[in-house]
Amino acid sequence: MKTSLFALEPNDRKVFPLIAALSLAVPLLVLALMLMPESWRLNTGIEPHILPLFHAVINGTTALLLLLGLYYVRQHKIGLHRLCMLLALFLSVVFLLSYVVSKLSHAPVPYGGTGLMRSAYYVVLVSHIILTLPLLPLALTSVYRAFTGQIAQHKKLVRWTFPIWLYVAITGVLVYVFMAPYYG
Fold it and tell me: How far apart are CA 165 and CA 128, in angstroms?
């Protein structure tokens, strides 16, 4: 039974290959940008410290939207839940595009901390990076299931998607907090 406002017809044969292709292409693109030679970087005129701050604001806002979405779905306010989740997805897309611009225009900044702070930073960073890998297919599939009215499958999937997405958003802010002194 369809309960989705959008009530799109499921088309797994077209959607899942697209989700798989995006889920593979995006991390490969980010990796290529991280390894790109300095001489290939674009001069966008954007100060190196502006985009990381923008990314932290996007991640923090995404975390708040995810929590609001959880609150609204528990209150059975599905329209507000849907709005929060779509805004969180939109901000994630904005983040990704901005992150690509950031990597095209600026080389990665090394972390300069030492001791326990350095260890904490790398635990946060590595867990953040690792969990971004399953997040894209989980989030896209969760949205697809909701848009096609497959609410039972959507609920099962978001039990994994939600905590991973929230963790990635929060640790995105933490990475910025750790790195802020080194952006110059």
Answer: 10
Calculate the alpha carbon distances from 154 to 111, 139, 144, 147 in Å. Answer: 39, 10, 8, 9
Which helix (H) or strand (E) segment holds residue 39: the answer is none
CA-based radius of gyration for the chain: 18
**pTM to 2 decimal places:** 0.89
Mean pLDDT of 151-157: 96
Amino acid occupying residue 114:
T
- pLDDT for 46-78, tens place per residue? 887 899 999 999 999 999 999 999 999 999 999
86, burial (CB in 10 Å: exposed 0-12, middle 13-18, buried 19+)? middle
Select from 172, 169, 171, 177 the least CA-distant residue to 85: 169
**How is residue 151 written in tokens?**
């609410």
Tokens for 23, please give them: 């889920």
Structure tokens at 42: 């674009």
Q: How far apart are CA 6 and CA 134, in angstroms?
A: 26
Q: Counting beta carbons within 10 angstroms of the beta carbon of residue 95, is it exposed (0 to 12), middle (13 to 18) or buried (19 or more)?
A: buried
How far apart, in Å, are the Cα atoms of 113 and each of 28, 71, 88, 173? 28, 37, 31, 17
| Cα(152)–Cα(127) distance, integer angstroms | 29
So where are the chain's domains? 48-182
